[in-house]
Amino acid sequence: MLPAPVSTIAPSTATGRPIRWGVVATGSIAARVVQDLALLDDAVLHAVSSRSEASARAFALRFGFTTSYWDAAGAAGYDRLLADPAVDVVYIATPHTQHHAVALAALHAGKNVLCEKPITMDAEQASELADLARERGLFLMEAVWTRFLPSFRRALQIVRSGEIGTVRWLQADLCFTAPVDPASRLWDPAAGGGALLDLAVYPLTWALGALGEPGAVAARGTLTPEGVDLQNALTLTYDDGAHAQLTTSIGAESPSVVTISGTEGWLRSSTPLFNPGELVVQPRRGTLRTERFEVFGSGFVYELREVTRCLQAGLTESPFMTTAESVRMMEVLDEARRQIGLRYPSDADLAAGVPA
Q1: Is 9 domain-assigned?
Q2: Is Oxidoreductase among this UniProt entry's keywords (predicted)?
Q3: How would you list the strands of the sheet with 19-24, edge to edge?
Q4: At CA 199, angle to CA 39 and CA 19, rounded to 5?
Q5: What tens digit of pLDDT does each residue of 301-327 get?
Q6: How far apart are CA 145 and CA 167, in angstroms?
Q7: Rounded distance, CA 192 to CA 285, Å?
Q8: Does a structural domain hold residue 121?
């Protein structure tokens, strides 16, 4: 994983021609991301789609979109949005289980795509999207916003500088107690619920950034009566003997921090690890220090700037969040699911897995 470059220029500052955005879905994550999208000087909020006319119109009015689409006359709202020639790039904020179908339709329609995490439900689907984007010369990126935050970029810079020596161990947790609600997507197998697909991408992002791809994955988890995972623990092992221990849960509270331990010191994030405002660094032969970071907007603006920059430069993927990395992350999650017995109605055959 390459760390995104550090810039002294505000991420809202235009980097080229205006980019016209279409947004699929009007839920809470879409609203949070679009709030930051509106901060970009070269972003045009062109179109939004929803299943319902009321939601589409309300969202468009709230954020100032030019037009809105909804399910009508046998056509899905997103199909109507994808047929709009004015849309340059589509941001997909649907539930997990819809990511693959909507992204596939967008790429077939000739649209560039930014898709919420996890990019798909499994690695096979992710590979299909990556191959199609490559064949059609279109941009595709998974919306792992943490990768582009100043604090995460700085953490990788410290790791790569050698200040804390060779990384031998990493621990990361992301846990919270979610009210049990069978109607909520977190508890619904049909919506890809559970802790793993919703939360594990963040601890994994830190592990892959600091240590790279693991040689093996071992996973344990607890399933709910509804059939989703309440919590899970992943151990990643590396050929050089390094380890990463990652825990996610929707049934318990935790500090939600990451600790990176090296032969010459350690680094720890503040909470939450997906958007830390501080890093504590303790070199073995130095003084403990705290580095603090100001975040522009809510923090999504950094990944949105990267998408915009790539489109303006004619790139089909970000060098700092490649489709190959998204596929590999899904392979790790597939293997974890196989080991803990977590299956969804939408699953293809996960029996083969990857070496454990």
Answers
A1: no
A2: yes
A3: 67-70, 43-50, 19-24, 89-92, 112-116, 140-143
A4: 25
A5: 999 999 999 999 999 999 999 999 999
A6: 24
A7: 46
A8: yes
| Residue matched to tokens 């589509």 | 90
Q: Which domain holds residue 248?
A: 150-294+329-340
Q: Residues near 18 by Cβ (< 8 Å), separated by ≥ 6?
A: 42, 43, 44
Element (H, E) at 217: strand 216-223
Per-residue DSSP letters for 293-344? ---STTSTHHHHHHHHHHHHHT-SSBTTB-HHHHHHHHHHHHHHHHHHT---
Rounded to whole angstroms, the Cα distance separating 123 from 37 reads 28
pTM: 0.94
| Residue whose entry in the numeric block shows the structure tokens 């080229």 | 16
Tokens of 30: 């879409």
The confidence score (pLDDT) of residue 355 equals 34
Active site residues: 117
- pLDDT per position as a tens digit, 189-212: 999 999 999 999 999 999 999 999
According to the model, what pLDDT value does residue 4 have? 73
User: Per the domain annotation, does 43 fall within a domain?
Assistant: yes
